[in-house]
Design a protein that fits this description.
With 285 residues, this protein is an alpha+beta fold. The protein has helices at 13-24, 105-119, 153-167, 216-219, 249-275, and strands at 40-44, 52-58, 61-72, 83-90, 130-132, 136-148, 169-177, 180-191, 198-206, 209-212, 224-231, 236-242. It has 5 helices and 12 strands. Helix 2 (105-119) packs across helix 3 (153-167).
Length: 285
């Protein structure tokens, strides 16, 4: 659970009371209803040098994910599986509160939540990424870059990662001699083997009210926040809670039902994008 104090300006008590007052009437500071996501825009494969990439804009939060695929060695305890590594970086230009340097615990949290959300349901078929059993496998790097920060980085990063993974293709293997694998990264032959898609739904709690996809103004005054990962089979495959306040059993029941409902909408959006890649290959306005 991330507890690092934010460097963002403190929202005055009046702003919190305004957000609460609006929530009592079922609305929010940006005009949305409590259960609404912000508009989602997508650009597929904006990075030509990556094996797959996607740019996602969720309201004013913008995330870029690039997939890099290299030949490497398997983990010792998993000799017959490829390797998936998820990294996240908060680019300093994304917010005045971000500083250059190694990823802080907030970026690490985003990477770990997305990593677990992909790993638990076996979204990437790691057993199909073996080149030489026990010696050489494909190593998949899922690199997430936060370019503009206006809250709910995890949901935007999850969408960008899932789309980038769907766009990714394996480089061509030119030759295999003994343990030496030669590849040609200019030629991409087979799609990265995936078994299903995963989305995350983030819900914030403030004063007994629950809001989907909190923006930054809302995020910094939340009592608690929970992110639920749900795969395309409708299974809950991960959960992450932050904030000091807890959730009662009846609140969790409501949150889970709401998350499942919103996840279906996100999966439908993913399917729409993946069925019409040409339509979503244009730069985001």
């Amino acid at each position: 659970m991330s507890l690092t104090p934010t460097q963002l300006p403190i929202i005055p008590r009046l702003k919190r009371e305004t957000i609460l007052s609006l929530a009592r009437n079922g609305t929010r500071i940006d005009g949305r209803k409590l259960e609404d996501y912000r508009p989602i825009q997508v650009q597929l494969n904006p990075v030509n040098k990556a094996e797959g990439s996607a740019l996602v804009k969720l309201g004013d939060t913008m995330v870029l994910t690039g997939i890099k695929i290299e030949v490497g060695e398997p983990y010792r305890d998993r000799p017959n599986e490829g390797v998936l590594q998820v990294h996240a970086e908060f680019v300093p230009l994304a917010s005045p509160s971000f500083e250059p340097g190694p990823p802080d615990e907030n970026a690490i949290e985003v990477a770990r939540v997305i990593d677990r959300s992909l790993r638990e349901p076996k979204a990437v078929k790691l057993d199909e990424l073996v080149i030489i059993p026990g010696k050489k496998v494909w190593v998949v790097f899922n690199d997430i870059y936060l370019l503009d920060h206006d809250g709910n980085v995890i949901d935007a990063g999850m969408l960008a990662s899932m789309l980038a993974l769907n766009m990714a293709k394996l480089p061509k293997i030119v030759s295999i001699q003994d343990d030496n694998v030669v590849i040609d990264k200019t030629v991409k032959e087979k799609p990265l083997p995936l078994s299903l898609n995963v989305v995350t739904v983030t819900i914030g709690k403030i004063g007994g009210y629950f809001i989907v996809d909190p923006n930054l103004e809302e995020e910094v005054i939340l009592d608690a926040k929970i992110t639920i990962a749900i795969d395309s089979k409708g299974r809950i495959v991960g959960m992450q809670k932050t904030g000091f306040e807890g959730f009662r059993t009846n609140e969790l029941d409501y949150i889970i039902d709401l998350a499942l409902k919103k996840a279906r909408e996100l999966h439908e959006f993913l399917e729409k994008v993946l069925k019409n890649p040409e339509e979503f290959s244009k730069p985001i306005a």
